[in-house]
Amino acid sequence: MSELRHRLAEHWHHWRTVHINWRQLGRILLPMLILGGLLVYAAWPWIPGVREPAVRTVVLYGFSIIGEMMNDAVFPAFQALWEERTGEQVEFVSAFSASGTVTNQMILGVPAQVAILSLELDALRLVEAGVLPAPTWRDLPHGGVVNRTPFIILVRPGNPKAILDFGDLARRGVGVVHPDPLTSGGAQWAVLAEYHSVRMLGGTEAEAFDQLIGIWQNVVAQAASARAVRTQFESGFGDVLITYEQEVLSDRWRGRLSGEIVYPQSTIFSEHIVVVLNRNILPEDRELVDAFVTFLWSETAQRLYVDYGFRSVDEVLNAANPDFGMIPYAFTVDDLGGWEKAKPRIVDGIWRDQVLPSLGLEAAP
Amino acid sequence: MSIILTDLTARYGADTVVNCVSLEIADGELFVLLGGSGSGKSTILRMIAGLMPLAAGRVEIDGRDVTNLPPQQRDTGFVFQNYSVFQHMTVAQNVEFGLRIRRVASSDRRRRSTELLDQVGLGGLGARFPDQLSGGQLQRVALARALAYEPTVLLLDEPFSALDVKIRAQLRQSLKEIQRQLGVTTILVTHDQEEAFELADRIAVIERGFLVEVDTPAALYHKPRTEFAATFVGGGNVLVGRMEGGHMRLGSVTLPLPPDAPPHEEDDSVRLLFRPETVYADAKLPSQQQGIHVLGEGSVCDEIFSGSQQRLRLEMRGFEGVRSLAPPPPYGRRIFYIDAVRISDPAAGPVGVELGQRVWVGLSRYHVLDPTGLKVLIACAETPAGQAAAAFGGLVARAAAGPTTLLAVAEPERMTAARDHLEGLRRRWPGGPSLRLTSKVRLGVAATEVLTEAQEGDYELVVLGRQREGLGAVAQQILQRTETPVLLVQETPSQIARILVCTAAGEPGKSDVRFGGRIARRTGAAVKVLHIAHPDAASWQHRRAEQHMAAAQAVLDGLGVEAETQIEEQRTPELVPAIVAEAQAGDYDLLVIGAPTWRHPARLRWTDFATQILRSTARPVLIVPMAT
Amino acid sequence: MNPRPKAVLVPPLLLVLTLLPLLLMPLGAIFVFAGRAGLPGLIATLSQPDAQFALRFSLLIAFGTAVVNGILGTFAAYVLSKYRFRGREALNIVVNLPVAIPTVVVGTSLLLLWGPIGLLGQLLDPLGIQPMFAPAGVLLAHLFVTFPYMLGAVKPVLDELEMTYEEAAYTIGASRWQTFRHIILPALRGGMLSGLLMTFAHSLGEFGATVMVSGNLRLRTQTAPLFIFAQFEAGNIEAANAVAAVLALISFAIFMLLQWATQRRSGRVS
């Protein structure tokens, strides 16, 4: 900067003694103007008097796919409600990434007040790490479950492989794209669906095991996260993808869906858990945060979920969305005794210890 | 005085690069520091400017002690060898920089820079950038920039070295003119003696961080005091002869000592400088009227025609007892060279001289350099005896005021340690390090290497440490092979106040008296000459002894030494106890004894005698072999 | 004197062909995907408050990082180049280490140092000072990660700059500061500008360390790269690419501007 000043001073000197050199001056002034402009643009919201700072804030962390819905619909709805009720402005400070990442961030100490996780296992990790004193979310309505979405089968347009249910995925010649259950929460839901759907339809444990192993023999591509697997599928890998209904619906509404949904006879609902981190809530914010958490189960909020492709915990509201398909024998992890039982029995005990070795693969310790 | 430097000393790490340099430079003087590369001349300049910290000493500029001032406050103008013209400023901005720093109004700055640029011949180029200028122009920008704020002193570090010859001559001239016009005190550093001669009011010759000589160019050329200045400045012939009967003896030729020559003592070596243009070289013997001192016959071995001059190199052979220092004599041949210059004269035709022609060689003028003093070799072993030799040798060498060499002998792997040892000694040398103090490490076995060095180095005194046992093989070998006096040291007195010379009557006794006298004169010591007479001596022997003592007294008186003589009757059967008794009684710091020539029949008896003396006293003993 | 005109074009052509799959095509792809939703879509995406915030925040952090590291890096280069002291060589290596450490590790280390459960953070937390998950933390991470760039651009120039230029200024009467300002700084201009640009650009694109220390808070600490990643995770590839394209354009524009501003004065032929 001092160099610029120095050169300007020199130009001033030239101006007085000789003449002003506009070209030279332009060389200095134009970049300064442009850089200055950029700086003003960047700093605009922070310039005093430009924007009224909000009076109250709520800090919310959530898993990726609810981000858009929260920002565009749920937050504004609550802000309107709160302003109407108290006259106060509320600002939402939020961060959305993969459920596991959010959990890790909270363990490292991010100042989240409310978090929405896609997997109860992540919430249990918070208890283990001491972030939560106990599974406090179970005291919330519906055991903390705020909304859900079923796992469905996505096939190529026109369903060329004639896939009608999970059973068909075990057929020879079908290429399945699957996230890795060792790293992906979504993949663990999928394993439960692939196994337990057989039992829901009256099959034996052996039949369930056969279906699981049959599907896994057909896995042609695997990636660390549900998102990465989806990108693989979209770029042409495999014939089938097992994924969240909400994701597919939101793609469809955006006109980006390149495939068809196949609703299985029986599948699992992924349930999304609300966690409240009391240690990050100041006493004066208690009321506001509680009001927001209560709002998440209000009919207004639940309807918004339905609008955005999530299924409400209130079955009645789900009728409002005509795009939701019928799943006659849907189940939840509670039907398996909760994650505490389902994870060691099915994901670890069956999938990791029996299916993986039979495929010639060994889980990393 | 505009600039006064006192005991300026600088170090880079362990190396002392400038050693106690003191100079006074007058107002308006153009002073040149002349020296080879690495001589420390630029360092002196940087110390004046404040760019190099002083290890010791004082810098005064214009009556102001600036020793501890930063360069900014010294008010010097510095022109660097690479000019260091600021690349991002125009020529005018460069010149005005000093004024801008001093907050001079811009119109005044402009006026001043225009004026200066005109003066250095760069008028109208003020708006240019440095990369549009030639080397010579850049040099002038640097000069104008250094002059702009009217500094007290202008310092120029090799300002012409990066320029080609033609521009160099031109710029020298203009520098001289500008300096005269402005009257600014100027110090210029150069390695080019021609440049120094052309520019300087006075020249200081610098070598290995020491100030060798300061004088006007003419005096430095015609009447230098030191060999270094004589050979560094201009071409020159330097021959070494000996004083004999108040005249200089060069082999078979005797030359008178010029009236302005520095005083020399009998038997001292004399160094004679004569410049090529004073050499007579012709087939004809010069006539008496020409006033030429003929040296003898030589032959032309090289001839170079350089336009205005004809340069000759003459080969001189068969001169016994003459040594040449310059031009360097060829290795391993008993000849030396003399360089001569004749003005070329087309009218004279090819009369002159040709290669191989025999010519008479003579001198029309010559100059005598300052006497060197004794050339001393000190063997500095890291033993107690070696330490003692170094300490006492230091006292003697300082008194002898001659070039001194410190020698260490080491195995290859101890090389560095030996060098450090010598460097430490050099640092702590009495009177401080000087140009005439050199250190040398030889690889190998001490006994043989000290002898070799003593033989090769043409020393006049060798100082060795000793154990009590006796003479030792090294000392014996040196006495025998080189006939150089040897000083054996075991314990070191703190001074040399009293010297005991034990002399035999007759010819051999003359050397020890003379040498002891020389040392006494330089140390201011009192001398006692002792002769022990045999009780059974014949009367002619008594007479001879008395005559000898009278002669010794005369010699010592002539040297201005406080002296007494004594003849003592030998009462014991042995000679030695009498001498030792006297030495202890008189508390002498140094014993001098003579030694016979090695072919003399008395040699074996003498060795026995010397060994006994050395065994019975721990004092330093100087053994002087009889002059041949 | 000159090689034949056709031959002259061969090496540049070769270079462009080599860079096409490596550099140019991926860069082009960003713009292609960003524009897939058409210009109105692009504008809509960019005018979202999140996107706006992320861009602004990234720019501010990049400006801040460039300013702080510009000063710090120049100072470090000056000291490392002009002063001789014990441990200088070691320090020289250490200050260049941040480029060799994965940025995620940098972020984690910062968290473990300054985070609420970190070494120093634990002490600061009760005082209500929490640099992590806040803009200060992001700045801290960016300063760390981009430190070597300024140094790397300035130090070689300083090393080349002969001591005599400074000494000349001293003898002329300029103080250390005046010498630095009028002599050294102008000589460093080229190096400093390229160092600033490198720092700015790296800060603008920094992801690994930022994602760890920022808490990724939307409208609080979410930088443009984090926004891009969040959009990608939520399936909004277009939005991600749109912001990426803007980042690339800003970097390009600033680079061009500086290039133009620092060109040697026109009409100078030596």
Number of domains of chain C: 1
CATH H-level superfamily title of chain C = MetI-like
Termini of chain B, distance in Å?
53 Å
Uncertain residue segments of chain B = none
CATH architecture of the largest domain in chain B: 3-Layer(aba) Sandwich
Regarding CATH, which class of the largest domain in chain B?
Answer: Alpha Beta
Mean pLDDT of chain C: 84
Order of helices and strands of chain C: HHHHHHHHHHHH
Structural category of chain C is mainly alpha
Do you know the CATH topology of the largest domain in chain B? Rossmann fold
Can you walk me through this structure?
- The complex is a heterotrimer of chains A (365), B (628) and C (270).
- With 365 residues, chain A is an alpha/beta fold.
- Chain A has three domains: 2-46; 56-147 and 271-318, Periplasmic binding protein-like II (D-Maltodextrin-Binding Protein, domain 2, 3-Layer(aba) Sandwich), CATH 3.40.190; 149-270 and 327-358, D-Maltodextrin-Binding Protein, domain 2 (3-Layer(aba) Sandwich), CATH 3.40.190.10.
- In chain A, 47% of the residues lie in helices and 16% in strands.
- Chain A contains 14 helices and ten strands.
- In chain A, strands 1, 2, 3, 4, 5, 6, 7, 8, 9 and 10 form a ten-stranded mixed sheet that branches.
- In chain A, helix 3 links the parallel strand 1 (56-63) and strand 2.
- The model of chain A is unreliable at 15-19 (pLDDT under 50).
- Chain B has 628 residues and is an alpha/beta fold.
- Chain B has four domains: 3-222, 3-Layer(aba) Sandwich (Rossmann fold), CATH 3.40.50; 235-368, no CATH class; 376-489, Rossmann fold (3-Layer(aba) Sandwich), CATH 3.40.50.620; 498-625, HUPs (Rossmann fold).
- Chain B has 16 helices and 31 strands.
- In chain B, strand 16 (293-305) and strand 17 (309-317) form a beta hairpin.
- The model of chain B has no long low-confidence stretch (mean pLDDT 86).
- Chain C has 270 residues and is mostly helical.
- Chain C has helices spanning 5-34, 38-46, 49-82, 88-94, 103-114, 121-124, 135-160, 163-172, 176-205, 208-213, 224-233, 237-262.
- In chain C, helix 1 (5-34) packs across helix 12 and helix 7 crosses helix 9.
- The radius of gyration of chain C is 22 Å and the shape is globular.
- Chains A and C meet through helix 1, helix 2, helix 3, strand 2 and helix 10 of A and helix 3, helix 9, helix 11 and helix 12 of C.
